[in-house]
Design goal:
This protein is mainly α. The chain contains eleven helices and no strands.
Length: about 325
């Protein structure tokens, strides 16, 4: 369904925009109306989905044991549980990582491609590079997700922090190259200003787009992994907090992105990238330390239990 809807929406948008240099108000209104209707229809369809038989069997077993299922809790209770979960030390540290992913999401999905298109020193191909930026960001996302998906079991054993460190380095390099390549006023509107690299390099701009997508995959895959590991019993509230924080940060970032110069936006991104990576490292290192302590305690307890088991038969013989 997701594949077919994507093909339909892509073809619809291309047909509406084909042959137009300026997208008029009526075309924009039509496209947004169609997207809104499709989104509302999808939400309505979700209400008519039947509960899977396996889930029904699990619910009946829990009810037989006298347990209350979490799906039957009220929305207010679920909200209170989310707030309680947010007060945990690990979640308060991960909050800064969530915040960064929202800020950089708005940057690579809306600000960066527009900045490339507004840089007139890139020549007549500047407008064409906007779509190519989006493609390369997607390529970086898919490549990162596929790579770390295959290495998922190894990353849990070796630790998640090396991959987050790789994402931090990719984004830091990308921010620095963007600062050198694109003019400071490029996110605000069309400009003929120049940056430190003259003329601006289109290939370098495409490399930065790939690094932004790949770095985002590094962060998001490991956030999913650590949430599933640390909050296995509260997976739904933890992922809800992640999405809520990420979406809120993206909304705030979109609000100021069209009026703030590029240099300031890159400074904000780098600051939160550093803070978000460091706080993720703290949570990961504490989780690894707890696992080592538990493994060490189990090694100490197992010989003692075996010794006790050996003594019991001797005492019975006496």
């Amino acid at each position: 369904m997701s594949r077919n809807s994507g093909i339909f929406l892509g073809n619809f948008a291309m047909q509406q925009f084909e042959g137009k240099e300026v997208i008029d108000a009526s075309t924009r209104t039509l496209v947004f109306l169609v997207l809104t209707v499709v989104a509302i229809s999808g939400v309505i369809c979700l209400f008519f989905l039947r509960t899977p038989q396996l889930e029904i069997d699990m619910l009946s077993r829990r009810n037989d044991l006298g347990r209350t299922d979490s799906n039957n809790r009220s929305a207010l209770q679920a909200f209170k549980n989310s707030l309680r979960l947010f007060a945990r030390r690990e979640m308060m540290f991960l909050f800064w990582t969530f915040l960064y992913t929202g800020i950089e999401l708005s940057f690579f999905s809306g600000v960066y491609s527009a900045a490339v298109g507004f840089t007139e020193k890139l020549g007549p191909e500047a407008k064409r590079l906007v779509g190519l930026c989006g493609i390369l960001v997607g390529v970086g996302e898919v490549f990162g997700g596929f790579t770390f998906g295959l290495l998922g079991s190894r990353t849990v054993k070796k630790g998640r922090d090396p991959i987050v460190l790789l994402g931090f380095l990719c984004h830091t390099v990308a921010f620095y190259l963007i600062f050198l390549n694109l003019p400071n006023s490029s996110p605000i509107g069309p400009t003929t200003d120049i940056a430190y690299i003259f003329p601006p390099c289109a290939g370098l701009a495409m490399l930065c787009a790939f690094l932004l997508g790949f770095g985002d995959a590094c962060f998001n895959t490991q956030i999913y992994s650590i949430l599933g590991g640390l909050f296995a019993d509260d997976s739904a509230p933890s992922f809800a907090l992640f999405r809520f924080t990420q979406s809120g940060a993206a909304a705030v970032s979109f609000f100021y992105s069209s009026s703030v110069p590029l240099g300031i936006q890159l400074g904000i991104l780098e600051f939160f990238c550093l803070i978000g990576s460091f706080t993720f490292f703290i949570v990961e290192w504490e989780d690894a330390r707890k696992k080592r302590d538990l493994a060490f305690e189990s090694l100490i307890q197992s010989p003692a239990e075996e010794e006790n088991e050996e003594r019991h038969p001797e005492e019975e013989l006496r």
